[in-house]
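Quick one: structure for this chain?
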Amino acid sequence: MKQISYILTILIISTMISCVPARKLEELQLSFDDLHSQYEEMKTLKEFGDTSLMELKNQFNSLTNSYNLLKDECGKQRKDYEKTQASYELLNKNYKELVNSNENTKKDLRYELEQLDKQLNDKKRELFSKESSLMDKEQEANKLKKDLEALAKSLRERESRVNELESKLAAQESAVKELKDRLTNSLIGYQNSGISVIEKDGKVYVSLDNSLLFQSGKIDIDWKGKTALLKVAESLQDIEDFDIMVEGHTDNIPMKSSTIKDNWDLSVLRATSVVRYLSTEGKMDPIKIIPSGRSKHLPIDSSKTKEARAKNRRIEIILTPKLDSIMELLK
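Got it. Here's what it folds into:
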């Protein structure tokens, strides 16, 4: 713009100093107008350019400020990014370590789980075995309970039978003692005549010397013996619960007789004579009396003296309590 103004000034001055042809002047005038027009246009453009430049400057400044702000922000973001990247790398490292640790933990947990599963299976088998054993024990216990109840019932029944048995035994003992006392009192006058009454092993023994009943080698009862036997029969007349055994005993001297073979015959025949007399003259039931002979084989005194042989020659009336009711209880 300064160059254009300078040219115009020169042209005006040149025109004023010298005289130029009209045509030349017109050309100059046209050039001047053209230049002036260009000048105005350029002036306008300059003004517009200045305005645009200002706006551009303002925009530039604004952009510069924005740029600086963005640069600062970018720097901050870069720092945040770098910090975040560092955190990320640390987290990634920790993650990888954690993954590795988790893998190891998984392996450990898998192993522990396998072990626990194995233990659980073992416990299940053990529990099943114990439950099976418990069921067996329960069945056995139920069986034992039933057996125990049956045994308790049996024991109660046995206790009842034992009590009843004891009662019967006590009654028998009392009956034996009563019978012994009755016979003793009945035969009190014969105590010094070869008759004795004793109680032994729950039985009553009435022992009569052969000297009271028989003459030597004979089987017929002497009159003294008959009197004594009648006393015995009188005492035994009403007894019901006793078995009566009449046993004949001899000494060890062999029998010499044409009618009696030996001591066996003699002991039995004498016992038979006593049973016959008790049932006929003494009015005792013959079904209740059993004759038997022992010969020499059950002596009172084993000595070989005359006195010992005299003791061994005897008749024993053995009164045994009947055991039918007791045996019934023992079944």
